[in-house]
Write a structure and sequence with these properties.
- 42% of the residues lie in helices and 17% in strands.
- The protein is of the alpha/beta class.
- It has a single domain, classed as Aldolase class I (TIM Barrel).
- The strands form two sheets. Strands 1-2-3-4-5-6-8 form a seven-stranded parallel β-sheet, with helices on one face. Strands 7-9 form a two-stranded antiparallel ribbon.
- Helix 2 packs parallel to helix 3 and helix 7 packs parallel to helix 9.
Length: 268
């Protein structure tokens, strides 16, 4: 039997809730959105997607970009309340949010549970503290470990996001991060290879010769090994590669960007 197609309704909150801007980040070119949406805009976005949906699979509202649980409490709860109304009326099936490991605690979990959130994606990016420090993340691997434990205690689905190729990374640290992430038993993973995006701190580092982006063949070799680590433990890798949009492609300065990265890995 063919799997029913699912509807993911993305709501982008670029830089929303982020305590700082990481060296690699330019949410505007990634998401195509430059400012936080209003609660009314969130409702309008969901309605627009639902009005054109003809499938019968699961429907989900997903808050991406930024650090959702770092938003001011009133803003976060406003977004959640808007999403929860769609879930309460059975017009959507689930809600997911994306955030940083150091912005998860029992209180946050309680709020997310109250509004029907089922899945939390953690931007761990790496499980190596040196790589995290050089990337300006402002958190360590221990924060990711604690966040996953806290989320699992509250019965959330957990997705870990990793960014191979960050400053300080080599193939060994990339594989190490995958092994440590698998040990946390997440429900799924996303892999976003690091590329140099125009206007970021990483772009500045690249121009100064302080950062050397990975070549595509080296990234493909590393990603193939990383995917093997996850898949051998039965943890699905639900995304490989960055957003494929004209605006984003136009802003990629250097690095292993490819619109069909998973296909290249499978063929390697």
């Amino acid at each position: 039997m063919a799997r029913k197609k699912q509807l993911i309704i993305p709501v982008f909150i670029p830089f929303g809730g982020c305590p700082s801007i990481c060296v690699f980040c330019d949410q505007k070119s990634v998401t195509g959105v430059g400012a936080l949406p209003s609660k009314e805009a969130v409702i309008e976005t969901v309605e627009k997607h639902l009005s054109t949906w003809k499938g019968s699979g699961k429907k989900e509202i997903a808050f991406y970009g930024g650090s959702f649980t770092g938003l001011p409490e009133g803003v976060m709860e406003g977004y959640l309340a808007a999403a929860f109304e769609f879930k309460r009326s059975a017009r959507i099936d689930s809600i997911r949010v994306s955030t940083r490991p150091d912005l998860i605690d029992d209180s946050v979990c309680g709020t997310l549970k109250r509004y029907g959130v089922e899945t939390v994606e953690l931007g761990a990016q790496s499980m190596n503290d040196t790589v995290l420090r050089l990337s300006g993340r402002g958190h360590g691997a221990a924060d990711t470990i604690k966040a996953v434990e806290t989320l699992k205690k509250s019965s959330f689905n957990v997705v870990i996001q990793l960014m191979p190729g960050l400053p300080g990374d080599d193939e060994a640290t990339v594989i190490e991060s995958a092994v440590r992430a698998v040990g946390l038993r997440p429900d799924a993973a996303r892999l976003y290879p690091t590329v140099v995006v125009k206007g970021t701190k990483l772009h500045e580092m690249y121009l100064k010769g302080e950062y050397e982006p990975w070549e595509l063949p080296a990234m493909i070799r590393a990603l193939k090994k990383v995917m093997d680590v996850f898949e051998k433990e039965g943890i699905p890798v639900i995304r490989v590669g960055l957003h494929n949009s004209e605006e984003f492609r136009d802003n990629v300065i250097a690095g292993p960007y490819h619109p069909s990265l998973r296909d290249l890995i499978k063929a390697s």
